[in-house]
Amino acid sequence: xxxxxxxxxxxxxxxxxxxxxxxxxxxxxxxxxxxxxxxxxxxxxxxxxxxxxxxxxxxxxxxxxxxxxxxxxxxxxxxxxxxxxxxxxxxxxxxxxxxxxxxxxxxxxxxxxxxxxxxxxxxxxxxxxxxxxxxxxxxx
Length: 140
Prior knowledge:
Layout: H1 5-27, H2 33-42, H3 47-65, H4 79-95, H5 100-109, H6 113-136
Helix pairs in contact: 2-3, 5-6
């Protein structure tokens, strides 16, 4: 299957938005992945977060099974930097009380000012971090 990447991005965005809307409509819950994982690990209500996360993985598996191209892996990227990035992302989602899916997709869709502040903060941080890593550390 050789589909235009922009078309695939559009379809993916529509599916993410539809899933977030359906979850909010039927359960009153926000489709924030960090919150779902937190609920799955620490709270007794585990069925719907597990099903939602299984659906995310199954959707990617179906895409690849139908011939979708896998993203190219980053080679030569320092493992310590990847680990540090993971820790900082985890800390940031905890500090912001949500992640890109919770604030960026669901929060902005509900016109939440708190989510707008969070999205602006993590986008500016991402731009700054990319500049530092690429231009000051020289890691490409």
